[in-house]
Specification:
Strand content: 15-25%
Low-confidence stretches: 126-135, 214-218
Helix content: 25-40%
Number of domains: 2
Strand order of the largest sheet: 3-4-5-6
Shape: rod-shaped
Number of strands: 7
Mean pLDDT: 83
Distance between the termini: 99 Å
Structural class: alpha/beta
Radius of gyration: 31 Å
Largest sheet: 4 strands, mixed
Number of helices: 4
């Protein structure tokens, strides 16, 4: 037979457990209510969006082997390297669009990276990246890293390959006038040609990359 004091103690402990459980439940509910009130009172912040900046694209046309200016308002990042990549990505998006005057597949994903570095007195880019989007003063070289899939699918032919390369160079110079030289890599490595013709082992001078430029387009 269970002693009376043990029975009393058992019921006291049971009652204490019930009371503590109820108190914890109320505390949890109050904490949840406060959290919801705090979320409701916090103003909704708009996502950070890069400001729209006017960009000039030098768009190639296969019809007459020319380039024409197309001025667009684009959301561009502040870093010069990232800005150059975004602008070139938009240029290649135009080439990948249906009915493009210079049809080339790949779009923005064809530009994997763009590095800017100061040009040395000898004319070649100084080794290494400046880490802040290029030098603040003086001429710069842009190193454009293309995706291997873009090079593999690019139409072969001296005219079409040259237009792609030269329009990239001219677009870089139009938006970053300090870029006077451009080098190309494919998947981070040097490649002899783009698709069998345009030489990618040479350094392109942006001053020489504007053949038969015609009027601006809206």
């Amino acid at each position: 037979m269970i002693p009376r004091y043990q029975t009393v103690l058992f019921f006291l402990l049971l009652a204490a457990s019930v009371i503590m459980g109820a108190a914890l439940w109320q505390l949890r509910n109050r904490a949840e209510e406060r959290r919801q009130e705090a979320q409701a009172s916090t103003p909704t912040q708009a996502p950070l969006v890069a400001p729209a900046v006017q960009a000039t694209l030098m768009v190639a046309s296969d019809a007459d082997d020319s380039m024409s200016e197309r001025i667009l308002s684009l959301p561009l990042p502040p870093s010069a390297d990232a800005r150059a990549r975004a602008i070139l990505g938009k240029l290649l998006d135009l080439y990948a669009a249906p009915g493009a005057a210079h049809p080339v597949q790949g779009g923005a994903s064809a530009i994997t990276q763009v590095f800017l570095m100061p040009v040395s007195a000898g004319g070649a880019g100084a080794s290494g990246n400046t880490g802040n989007g290029g030098a603040k003063n003086g001429p710069e070289m842009a190193v454009v890293n293309l995706a291997g899939t873009f090079a593999a699918s690019h139409p072969s032919g001296i005219e079409t390959e040259s237009l792609t390369v030269l329009s990239i160079c001219a677009t870089l110079h139009a938006n970053l006038p300090q870029v006077t030289e451009v080098r190309f890599l494919v998947d981070g490595e040097e490649r002899e040609t783009l698709a069998g013709h345009a030489d990618l082992t040479r350094t392109y001078l942006t001053a020489e990359a504007e053949p038969a430029v015609v009027g601006a387009q809206p």
